[in-house]
Amino acid sequence: LGDGPFAFFQVFTHLVIGWPLYLLGVASTGRLAHDGTELEGLADHFRPGSPMFPPKVRGKIFVSTVGVVATLGVIMHLSMTYGFLPVALWYWGPYSFVNAWLVLYTWLQHTD
């Protein structure tokens, strides 16, 4: 591929594909559960009963998931009311930029 295209491919896969897969528990969420045992099954960031979280934070995970679902509902409503393009420009653009920096910082912190 060469250095330039390979670098673009790496950045694209980490920022656009890797971040959502990580949140859904499909990509590397770690190997151990909250109690130190080996993780089995799907360990995502949205289910209150996910083995990666201790039982005492299940309420917070539930509230967070309700917030994510409500936000997606509002975004869907706005897209149907004003059209996809304005919502994409006003929401998804800044959202992608902020998450790109978050993923980039984390990626650089965990690589040598």
What does this structure look like?
With 112 residues, the protein is an all-alpha fold. Helices cover 64% and strands 0% of the residues. The model has no long low-confidence stretch (mean pLDDT 82).
Quick summary:
The protein has 112 residues and is an all-alpha fold. It is 64% helix and 0% strand.
Shape: flat
In what range is the share of β-strand residues? under 5%
**Number of continuous helical runs:** 3
Tell me the span between the first and last alpha carbons.
22 Å
- Report on the biggest sheet: none
Contiguous low-pLDDT stretches (5 residues minimum) are none
| SS class | mainly alpha
How many strands appear in the DSSP assignment?
0
Q: What is the H/E string?
A: HHH
Compute the gyration radius: what is it? 17 Å
Q: Let me know the average pLDDT.
A: 82
Helix content: 55-70%
Q: Tags for this entry?
A:
112 residues; mainly alpha; 64% helix
Topology, element by element:
Elements: H1 3-23, H2 58-82, H3 84-109
Helix pairs in contact: 1-3, 2-3
